[in-house]
Amino acid sequence: MTYLTVPIAAKDLKEAAGQIKTATQAGAELLELRTDFLENLSTSLVEKLITETKTANLPVIVTCRDKRQGGAIEYPAQLRVDVLAAAIKSGADFIDLEFENFSGQNRKAITEALSQNPKSRLILSTHNFKTKFDDLEQLYSQIKKSYQPAIPKLIFTANHINDCFEAFDLLNKTDDDLITFCMGQAGFISRIIAKKLNSFVTFASIDDKTTTAPGQLTIGQFKNLYRYDSINSDTELYGIIGSPIGHSLSPNIHNACFADIGADKLYLPLLIEGGRDEFNTFMQNILERDWLGFKGFSVTIPHKQNALDFAHENKGDIEPLAEKIGAANTLLINERQISAYNTDYAGALDAITSTLKITRQDLKDMPIAVMGAGGVARAVVAGLAESKAKVTIYNRTVEKGQNLAVQFNCSFKPLAELSKVDSELLINCTSIGMYPNVNATPIAKNHLKKDMAVFDTVYNPVETLLLKQAEKIGAKTISGLDMFINQAAAQFKLFTDTDANTNLMRNILSNCLSEE
Ligand code: NAP
Question: To pair with 211 at 20 to 30 A between CA atoms, which of 48, 222, 317, 432?
Fold first, then answer.
């Protein structure tokens, strides 16, 4: 079992009582009493704190962290050991001592106290706040060799998501109780995957204000967003690969839809910084570890082309239009076999056809203006070209726009020509108007026409200035949110072979986007 552990980091007993109550109500399974946060620390204060904790009826770890290993207030070494020995005598289930301090008189005092309360267990911890340990496995063996009954706790900072795999490997090959995960934004997923790999504990904070380590999630995020209670060793993993990824709403909608159909699946944000090399290393790490259970990915900026290239290099199955677009936004993995898809173009075409109540065949010969020539424009233009629409691309960087036009047999015009635009459908595929630049629009409002349909692929905000101005003159509007939901639903179908609950997706997205 993995205990979802909440640190109680309070300056006095009153504050601690409040935190204990909140943590318990939020669903904590174990409390870590960080006594190094207490002002005027004494053994009797810690004994009172342990008594206070008994109301919660949860197991406790008592820690008095050395400042050199991330402690809050700098207390003398002797007092810290006295506090831990007193905690053992008062019935603490676990105490946590730094491995580097477990020698000489400290070791004698702690092992003597443990012999008087055999129910109490020792966690020997070590932290690296800068980077990986030189040899994680060797450090683990060293701790076990030093004191066999100890629970080793090895916490290090991941400077890249690829650093996390060492912690996963150690968890995978160790049957004894062990705590290992990574700090920092890049180590985020290791705190969640810890449960799948049976780490003895993983830590969550009560809220954003009470985090005690970099990259810590809140207990609410663990339980509500990342399906903590349902994670088990068989849970299949999915995620969105990109950089940056922190604001992606894909975990919100996919996890809610997995829960909706009762799937034993979990969807994570996968921040892959760097370029092709880092992406390839991540994917190799995944392919080499089928026991991790990654089965599929959504892929976003800047890795869509890398995803397609990786599928090529690994002799994957590639959807023909993804090939034509030159980008994959979805990867599936089945026993090392990769399949690559692009659900963006279908998402866009379905948004157009469903709102205008037409079929894809009706797009044939329709005059359509596309603003932009980036990744989304490529997918939209490829889909429209497939349907034989008459597309004109308008783009700021002329060469990029011209190249896209040549590839898909369309026309190109510079942005200035937008003043004369006269198409049945106008599509914004630029990022203009996206949050936080919500007062920007890619085309002056006097160039919009009443009998034009206007589609903005930007979905944050849901109602962009472009859509508001089009609606005001009576033009039909198509929302980027529909495209986003359609492409996510197509991915969900690939991940689960089941239709997504698109109403649920829409509600979640509308709520999250209106909060910004
Ligand atoms: P991208 O590859 O970076 O392309 C951005 C495009 O916008 C380029 O054509 C760029 O022109 C143009 N652009 C940016 N700023 C401009 C400015 N100030 N003036 C004129 N042109 C400008 O981005 P992308 O991946 O295509 O994404 C574009 C937008 O699509 C995103 O911002 C997002 O809101 C939206 N999107 C929607 C969905 C959905 O499902 N609805 C999915 C993904 C993205 P240059 O070529 O001259 O640089």
Answer: 48
Q: What is the pLDDT of residues 306-364, one digit of tens each?
A: 999 999 999 999 999 999 999 999 999 999 899 999 999 999 999 999 999 999 999 99
- For a mutational test of ligand 1's pocket, the pick from 371, 431, 435, i.e. the residue with the most ligand atoms closer than 8 A to its C-beta, is 431
pLDDT in tens, 252-269: 999 999 999 999 999 999
The runs of H, that is alpha helices, within 265-330 are 276-287, 304-313, 320-325
Q: Give the C-alpha distances (Å, rounded to integers) separating 54 from 142, 302, 338.
A: 34, 50, 52
Nearest CA to ligand 1 atom 48: 397
Ligand 1 atom at shortest distance from the alpha carbon of 401: 46
* Beta strand 337-341 pairing with 330-334: antiparallel
Compute, in angstroms, the gap from residue 457 CA to the centroid of ligand 1: 9
In the prediction, which pLDDT does 213 show?
A: 74
Q: Helix (H, G, I), strand (E, B), or coil: what is residue 30? A: strand
Ligand 1 center–CA 379 separation, angstroms: 12
Q: Give residue-wise pLDDT tens across range 458-510.
A: 999 999 999 999 999 999 999 999 999 999 999 999 999 999 999 999 999 99
Over range 406-421, report the average pLDDT.
Answer: 96
C-alpha dist (Å) from residue 194 to 165, 200, 263: 11, 8, 20
pTM, full prediction: 0.94
- What amino acid positions are annotated as catalytic residues? 127, 153, 304, 344
| CA 301 to ligand 1: nearest atom | 25
Phi, psi (degrees; rounded to nearest 5) at 6: -115, 120
Pocket of ligand 1 (CB under 6 A): 301, 347, 372-377, 395-397, 400, 429-432, 434, 457-459, 480, 483-484, 487
pLDDT at 408 over 80: yes
97 C-alpha to center of ligand 1: Å?
Answer: 52
